[in-house]
Design brief:
By secondary structure, this protein is mainly α. Helices cover 66% and strands 0% of the residues.
Length: 152
């Protein structure tokens, strides 16, 4: 079992929190569809083992109309390609390789799929989205960020 939250970055240094939040705002203001961003956030959070972000982004995704089924099978998306568009599959594959960058970087095959489905500006936004969620995940996991209380 995880120990208590170690610290609250926002309480101790709001400027640090605001810096990451600025990247998040940049990503949200772009042209990438909310459902795709939800999948990116969820997949990176699964790979990073971030319970706080998984809880938050699953709740947000469902509120935006994402199906529970797609969220349930996201970690095995390769086995359910019919549930995800080719564009989403390219984004998820890039998310995995960027999140696990030390495992060999981003392959040419994955990059080709990304450039097939995203223009250059969207690719930049996608990379920023992937990196933003990885920063949030690492902060939450390192500090043992508490899950919010829920009534249901």
């Amino acid at each position: 079992m995880q120990s208590a939250q170690r610290l609250s970055i926002n309480d101790i240094d709001p400027g640090a929190y605001q810096a990451v939040l600025a990247v998040e705002r940049y990503v949200r203001a772009g042209s990438l569809e909310p459902a795709l961003l939800s999948l990116v956030k969820m997949r990176a959070s699964q790979l990073n083992g971030c319970a706080f972000c998984l809880d938050m982004h699953a709740t947000e995704a469902r509120a935006e109309g994402e199906s529970q089924r797609r969220l349930d099978v996201l970690s095995a998306w390769h086995e359910a390609p019919g549930l995800f568009t080719e564009r989403e599959q390219a984004a998820i594959a890039l998310t995995e390789q960027v999140t696990l960058i030390s495992g060999g970087g981003v392959s040419d095959d994955v990059w080709q799929q990304v450039t097939k489905h995203f223009d250059e500006k969207e690719t930049v936004r996608l990379l920023m989205a992937i990196n933003a969620i990885n920063v949030w995940n690492r902060l939450a996991v390192a500090t043992h960020q508490d899950l919010p209380e829920r009534t249901s």
